[in-house]
Amino acid sequence: MLGLSLPALIVLASWFAAALLGTPQAWAGDLNLNAVLVWGTDEAKPRDADYKELDPKIRKKLGRFSRWRNYFVIKEEKASLARGAMKKLKMSAKCELELKNIDDATLEIKLFGEGRWTATLKKSAEAMRKGELAVLGGDDKDKYNDAWFVVISVPAP
Amino acid sequence: MNPETQLKLQAWLDGELPPDEVPAVARLAETDRDAAALVAELRHTMAALANNELERPLPESREFFWSKVERGILAGERLATGRSRPLGLSSWLRFLAPAGIVAALAIVLFTPIFGVHRGANLAALEEIESPLADVSLTTFRSESEQMTVVWVNLH
Amino acid sequence: MSKIIDYPSASDELLVLNAQKGDTRAFEELVARHRDKLYARAFSMVRNEDEAVDLSQEAWVKGWQRLKQFQGEASFLTWMTRIVINLCLDHLRKQKRLRTDSIEQLDEDSGGVERLLPVVTTNPTEGLERAELRERIDRALDQLSYAHRTVLVLHEFERLEYKEVAKRMGCSIGTVMSRLFYARRKMAGLLAGLREGRKP
To answer: How many domains does chain B have?
Structure first.
């Protein structure tokens, strides 16, 4: 077979097995993700709403680039993606996400605003596993000076 | 004169007042002294601004400015056609399929050693795009915060 | 490029047609022809030379990338101007958010401050040469906040309707009307002040 002797084939097969076992991407397991829809505003929380405050660590990171007084969590969703799997998350009536674990190496995040595919962000899955945040945001169309964010991260084990 | 009336006088001058409101506002501008004074002031300002934006030459030579634009165009085209992309195992195998099984195995063997991600800046392996003409994306990146923010601008 | 054309004397339409087929020489001619106007528009909005150069450069690159979408529904310069305006608006919004000091309060929008401004009875253009008037208008524009200057540029210089201004600025028509009213009244006062030799 292939013109190789049996011992050579055994060695090659062993190397092959070692290679596969040693490749982080191939055996990373499912990509577990958290997606949070956040409302950035200078106003106080509405009295009749039960929005939670954003995780302080994420709030601190967002605060490095933006200056709202408050960041309220509107919705939180989770997804667990095997290699090649895709999941749609409905974050609000106007905001949907499509998350896809392309090949265990790349996470594809598609944002749909009011049904329109608006933006795509591709991130390294390994970077996400190491603590990277992927954030999409924009002006709130209905409320001047407010903003929305979608924060995607891999939760700590 | 209340603010609403003032804004109606302005809208009348701008041709943006609903047609059914025009006669009343026009009458007010003629008969009310304060309204007439405000209308005169607005008219003067509008006339002063019309076609009187200061002309400004771009403070760079034609050749220099064009060279920057050209570089931007070429960079955009490189990004569109030759995006760097982390190659997964399957991509390597597909690429090498015609070369034969032994060669494929050899590459698989070496992938963990010469893996695309090893030593690379993982966060740099990002792609961002929007398919919509009325949307532009602004990207903020913080290495220290390990965060990429894509700001969606609707036009 | 299948035809040899005389670029400097070719019409914008012909240059666009060729540029859409990939002729960068044609696009270069369009850039040379309209770069000053585009830069002036960017400067009117952002009031900073370096930023205006960068934004107009970015607009030209985007113009090339989107050229196939241009159908001739408006003039090429109008189409390019829309692109640079959008880039300037994005830039200004981003700047507003990245300020380390407190966010600028736009009290003028809703505070009714404009009601307190006395009506200006003199005509600011009277007796002025056009060049001098343009200089004064430019200096007065510098005194406005970014929101008021933007609404003035979009409505008075770009001749956009209230609805279109509101869409680009991401605010209501009512807000546009208030801001425009305040901006015009402030301009009247500033121009009158400049006329009397008062520093703004």
So the answer is: 2
Residue A146, by phi and psi: left (phi above 0), alpha (psi -120 to 50) or beta?
A: beta
- Look up residue C91 and give its two tokens: 């830039």
pLDDT 10s digits, B126-151: 778 887 777 777 777 777 778 888 88
Segment (H or E) for C26: helix C24-46
| Angle, CA of A29, B145 and B120, to the nearest 5° | 55
Q: Does B69 touch chain C (CB under 8 A)?
A: yes
SS3 A48: coil
Domain boundaries, chain C: 7-97, 107-195
Sheet strands side by side (includes A86-90): A86-90, A95-101, A106-113, A116-124, B127-129
**Which residue ranges make up each domain of chain A?**
28-153
ipTM of predicted assembly, 2 dp: 0.83
Nearest chain C Cα to B155, which residue? C168
Q: For residue range C47-80, what is the model confidence (pLDDT) as tens digits?
A: 999 999 999 999 999 999 999 999 888 999 999 9
State the CATH class of domain C7-97.
Answer: mainly alpha
Check residue C199 and give its pLDDT: 43
- How far apart, in whole angstroms, are the C-alpha atoms of residue C116 and residue C74? 41
Q: What is the pTM of this model?
A: 0.55
Q: Do B72 and C60 touch (CB under 8 A)?
A: yes
Distance CA B129, CA C60 (A): 19
The two beta strands, B147-154 and A133-139, are parallel
Minimal C-alpha gap between A46 and chain C (Å)? 22
Q: Under CATH, which number does the domain C107-195 receive?
A: 1.10.10.10
Give residue-wise pLDDT tens across range C142-154.
Answer: 888 888 999 999 9
**Cβ atoms C78, C35 nearer than 8 A:** no
Which of B111, B113, B122 is the mutation pick for testing A, counting most A CBs within 10 A? B122
**B101 belongs to a structural domain:** yes
* Residues 4 through 43 of chain A touching chain C, CB cutoff 8 Å: 42
Q: C86 and B54 in contact by Cβ < 8 A?
A: no
The partner residues of B127 in beta bridges, in order of sequence, read A122
Structural domain that includes position B25: 3-49
